[in-house]
Amino acid sequence: MVERDSIFHKDLKVLFSFLVVLGIPWLLPTGAGATTRVGNSEIRLVYEMQQTFQANGTRSIEWVQWRNELRVEYHYEDLIDDHKLFGRYAMSLFPFIRQADFSFIYRGRIDPVYIVRDKYRKLYNENQTDHYLFPENDIREINLDVDFGDVFGHELSMRLGRQQIVWGESALFRSIDMANPLRIDQNGLVGEALKDFRTPIWAAKFRYDIGNVGTHFFNIGWEFFYTPRWRPGTNHLILEGGWDLQYHDPRLFREITSTTSPGVRSFVNSLQPFKKWGRVRNPWSIFRVGPNANREVPDYGCIGSPCDEKHRADFVYLIDGSRHQIRGTKWENSMVGTRLLGKAFDNFDFSINYLFKRADPGVFLKLDRLFDKTKPGTGAFRNDTLFGFGIPGRDLQTGLNRCLSGQNKQAAFLNGAEVYGYNSDANPNNDRSLTGCLPTGYWYPWTHIIGFTTTYNDFDYTGAVFRLEESWSTNEPRNFLFDAYGGKDTAHANGFHTEGNVKDRTECPAGGTFCPGARAFKFKGKTGSAVWRSMLGVDLLRTLTWLPGFLGKSPMFLTGQQFVTYQNDNRPTNLNAFTNAPRDRHQRWEQLYTVSGSGFFLNGKLEPLWAFAYSVNAKQPLWLLQTFWHGLYFQNLDLFTGMAIYMGSKNQVDGSSLNYYADRDTYWIRLQYYLL
Fold first, then answer.
1. Where in the sequence is the domain holding 278, given as residue range(s)?
2. Residue 548: is the preceding peptide bond cis (ω within 30°)?
3. Over the stretch 450-480, which tens digit does the pLDDT of each residue have?
4. Alpha carbons 84 and 528: distance in angstroms, whole number
5. CB 559 within 8 A of CB 596
6. pLDDT band at residue 645, thresholds of 50, 70 and 90?
7. Which of 44, 70, 261, 529 is most buried, with most CB under 10 Å away?
8. Is residue 606, in this structure, part of any structural domain at all?
9. Residue 250, pLDDT above cutoff 70
10. In the beta sheet, which residues pair with residue 637?
């Protein structure tokens, strides 16, 4: 049900005043989607409001977003014209610049749902609330487009600034379009245009127009870009209980002393009313630290066998944001890319692409800080790092404080501390008390991405456009598996060899489930894989005259795509390097198919779109239905509605990531008003 109980918050006064001011210009006539031009300047001022709901099938529906956006788009033409600033002042310092334009886009967002709904106000502290209430207030893009004129017989141009670098031919699939990370902390993976949730980066991009080469190649150009400010997709990713949102942080828990075991401390979750995952989940978190090893970062470890609630211990990730957030302008944050593009013969467009960058991160554990590396494959702990056992000065609280200290902030392996409920449910006496700190780290390996794209315009026969995109990434993080789920590959990951009967070892000694071996201690579970990605698509623009009414009088755009991913070194037991979920297995071959159609009806006022996607390995179907209505009631008011229906299982995991949204069907309605 939609939560209706809310308390008027004083911060709403500012919001409502802001909305009232925005409402005044609604009475003024404005051309739909038009810009206002003053001299060489063009400016567009847009206000958007989006209401979003999420549902788990037909069982529940929840209001999750009230997004208000103010966007300013500004462009100044001929900032430099004919080597003169504003067309008047000679550019003695930069005589090589013939012409230049300046532009920027500002975007500010406020989402009052986090202060209106009691649920979110009780879940999040003040800093977290501010973070989600004001997710953006920044110059999103700012660029100087420079024309250097003739350089060695050909035209040279440059874009300098905070920008999006969009390469490739695929839609809803990123193979070569890897320069800008996606920001999905305010929306899901489908339903919004990629340009609206790519994160612009500071870069310098050059284009050298070579022109025609021989009799078969035309409009040949060479592009090159460099940035010292590469960013991973994890900078804004919400992993609950891991980073960005640590609602399971023991610092949020109230400490108590056990009545049945004097001197043994425990912790009670202060968020108990919202502990059920469906109620505590942030609407835009991709996954969480939790008990489901199929698709989540495990929140438990095991002491003894079998690995059930009786033998589980809490595993709490206490991760310093600086360990996974990449910031600053540094040489190690560099990314460079180049491509050659143009036309071949009369019908082919092509590009040859190369990127050198860091891959998105993999996670590893510094195992030798908790386990005894002199006894590989046994699961033996280091006694000097464990606290508890009732020994004075090494009690549970001391150990926990050590893990929580400012410089450590390490993952804590807690046995006896009541955080996730394992100990209180299956161990009512709470008599197992020990704490060990297990540092968690990230690695960003360098990778080369080599690819090409081509389109073939078959105007003479079918009228269709055929698209092809291929890429090869040389090194992306993957993790080995340490526990008994791995079978014989576990032995390989742990460094066990074929001498004697060790080759048959498929479980840890005594049935344990976490026994890092020599290889695991050396490489910390890190390994990499080359990844090949392929896209084949076809587009067709047709007027389907057999359709009734206005549907048969306007053109429709139909498109279909096949995506294939091949992981060169992906054992069936490989961890997903990012979730670290023991059973989150991405297959060696993965396929995803999409088909969609859109139209332009009623003189372009109505633009419906439907799309269907199907991920083969995990049997994950997806329906996307949305429509734009331009000039709704007012000439300068647009309406955008849509729904994304995820019809698969949340436990069927593959590289499409559709399973992470399988219990979050999303519905939205957006009003877009052009103030200027």
1. 239-322+384-437
2. no
3. 999 999 999 888 889 999 999 999 998 876 6
4. 52
5. yes
6. very high
7. 529
8. no
9. no
10. 673
Domain count, the chain: 1
Say which range, 63-77, 307-321, 341-355, has the weakest mean pLDDT: 307-321
What would the DSSP string read from start to end of 309-322?
GGGEEEEE----GG
Residue 402 CA to residue 113 CA, distance in Å, equals 37
Mean pLDDT of 566-579: 54
- State yes or no: pLDDT of 348 exceeds 90: yes
Give residue-wise pLDDT tens across range 356-407.
999 988 777 777 877 888 887 777 777 777 766 556 666 666 776 677 665 5
168-183 exposure pattern, b = at least 16 Cβ within 10 A, e = fewer: bbbbbbbbbbbbbbeb
* 191 part of a folded domain: no
Considering all CA atoms of the chain, what is the largest pairwise distance in Å, rounded to the nearest integer? 89
- The sign of the dihedral angle between the CA atoms of 19, 22, 27, 29 is negative
Per the model's pLDDT, the better-predicted residue between 312 and 381 turns out to be 381
Which of 331-345, 359-373, 435-449, 599-613 is predicted most confidently? 331-345
The answer to whether the beta carbons of residues 72 and 43 sit under 8 Å apart is: yes
Q: Is 254 among the domain residues? A: yes
Most confident of 168-172, 188-192, 569-573: 188-192
650 within domain boundaries: no
CB count, 10 Å around CB of 427?
A: 18
* Closest C-alpha among 68, 60, 57, 9 to residue 673: 68
Strand partners, 289: 297
Q: Are strands 36-38 and 41-55 parallel, antiparallel or unpaired?
A: antiparallel
With beta carbons less than 8 A apart as the criterion, state whether 347 and 456 touch: yes
3-state secondary structure at position 504: helix
Residues in CB range of 586: below 8 A, 6 or more apart: 567, 570, 574, 576, 653, 654, 655
3-class secondary structure per residue, 106-155: EEEEECCHHHHCHHHHHHCCHHHHHHHHCCEEEEEEEEEEEEEEEECCEE
How many whole angstroms separate alpha carbon 7 and alpha carbon 572?
51
Bridge partner list, 357: 447
Mean pLDDT within 597-618: 90
Locate 249 and state its tokens.
């942080």
* Residues 162, 201 contacting (CB under 8 angstroms): yes
Enumerate residues 6+ apart whose C-beta is below 8 A from 71. Answer: 44, 45, 46, 47, 48, 105, 106, 107, 108
Regarding beta strands 446-458 and 440-443, do their DSSP bridges make them parallel or antiparallel, or are they unpaired? Answer: unpaired
20 — phi, psi (to 5°)?
-65, -45
Outline where 37-110 has alpha helix (H).
Answer: none
Taken as a whole, the chain contains a residue count of 676
CA distance 182 to 189: 9
Distance, in Å, from the CA atom of 248 to the CA atom of 318, rounded to the nearest integer, reads 9
CA distance 433 to 414: 8
Residue 313's pLDDT band (cuts 50, 70, 90)? low
Closest C-alpha to 302, from 428, 485, 522: 485
Distance CA 6, CA 9 (A): 9
Listed in order, strand segments (DSSP E) in 186-283 are 201-213, 217-227, 239-240, 244-245, 253-257, 265-269
Alpha-carbon gap, residue 119 to 3, rounded angstroms = 8
CA geometry: angle 618, 621, 622, nearest 5 deg: 130
